[in-house]
Amino acid sequence: MEIALDTPVKTATPSRPRQRSKRRSMPMVVKLAYRNLFHDRLSFAVTIVGIVFSVVLVAVQTGIYLGSEKKISAILDAAPADLWIVPLGTKSYDDPSLLSGRERHMALSTPGVENAEDMVVSFAKWRKPEGGQTTILLVGSEQISDKPLPWNIEEGSREALNAPDTVAIDQSYFPDLGIKGVNNHAEINGVDIEVAATTRRIRSFTTLPFVFTSIENSRRLSGAEQNQATYERVLLAPGADPQKVKTEILARLPDVEVLTQDEFRKRSQSYWLFQTGAGAALIAGAVLGLIVGIVIVAQTLYSSTKDHINEFATLRALGAGAGYIVKVILMQAVLSGLIGFALGFILSLGVIEAAKDTKLTVIMTPQLASTLFAVTIGMCIFAAISAIVKVVRIDPAVVFSR
Q1: Concatenated DSSP letters for 173-187?
Q2: In the chain, what are the domain boundaries?
Q3: Cα–Cα distances in Å, from 88 out to 152, 258, 266, 362?
């Protein structure tokens, strides 16, 4: 007993709590989805190629559609007006016919109108210096506006167009017009003209090149009278009611149409994109790309699920619910969408950059990029439905029958 009492008692030292690793482990759902995707790399590559193809096709087709809208309304946007007086029955901006010639004075005498500017637009024959001719769209405007035409001038100046028989053309139309730059000569409707300025990236939706000049030159070259115009740009005084002024102008000029800026833009875009069928073709191409992407992703996810059916059945037998396995498949779809979108978007930006100085205008906007991302992820999730249906029907007893 004494020995026992004299023996020092060892006090238990409290064990130190284990320090958890600061690095968080990957969630099991993500890990399973990742391994399923990369288990068969050939199938995964096919999936990514399908998504990339879909993203690029949808991005380019939609970008062309937006670019077409911009090209159709390019001149209207560059030289906006509060109201436009146009000939009766005008379908679009590049469907020109001459007004009678009294529209400007009638507009200026209308209460609420601050200014009115003539604009002459007409088709004309361009004869190349080396021979041969082509049709152009001649655009003449006054230079008194705060937003005169043309814009994006690379060589020469806008003031140079005030000289007799001088014009400005876009650099992208040099080959079509047989021109190499400023100071070159050609003929418009049999009149010798000089290229006094060149612009960049001002292209028409149709194949007809825009050729800009002063209002005086355009009247002389097109054969219009000195008081005639194709369109009248009406600028309103501050505080004026556009609808009230529009009604008053129509009462004074019953044989014309008066359109707001937005109405003229939409009419021009609607005519070329929908009445001609061009817009429907672009939309159909984008939808086709979306369908191709859905089919390829659905086929790959379904095949992957079928190949791993025993593994999924094992998870079910171990107590994993159908919802957990559905999360794995959805995560596969999301991971595929993220990788495919990233690669496809980069490739799309390359295509858009390459088309900048061509006649093809492709636009990428932040709204289009975000919509494209949402559509891609949604496409992949939708494509996972067939695989999810297969998983939900798994019988856990499959594990014990092997």
Answers
A1: GHHHHT--STT-EEE
A2: 28-70+277-401, 89-254
A3: 32, 9, 16, 33
CB 233 within 8 A of CB 107: no
SS3 331: helix
Q: Which two tokens stand for residue 232?
A: 């009248």
Which residues lie across from 117 on neighbouring strands? 233
Q: Comparing 58-62, 80-84, 207-211, which segment has the lowest mean pLDDT? A: 58-62
Give the residue-averaged pLDDT of 162-182: 91
- Which two structure tokens, joined as six digits, stand for 122? 């007409």
Q: Rounded distance, CA 50 to CA 63, Å? A: 19
293: Cα within 13 Å, side-chain hemisphere: 31
CA separation for the pair 124, 135 (Å, rounded) = 6
Structure tokens at 333: 């779809």
Identify how many contiguous H helices and E strands the chain contains and give both numbers: 14, 10
Distance CA 378, CA 338 (A): 11
Q: Is 117 in a helix, a strand, or coil?
A: strand
pLDDT (mean) for 260-282: 86
User: What is the C-alpha to C-alpha distance for residues 188 and 182, in angstroms, rounded to an integer?
Assistant: 16
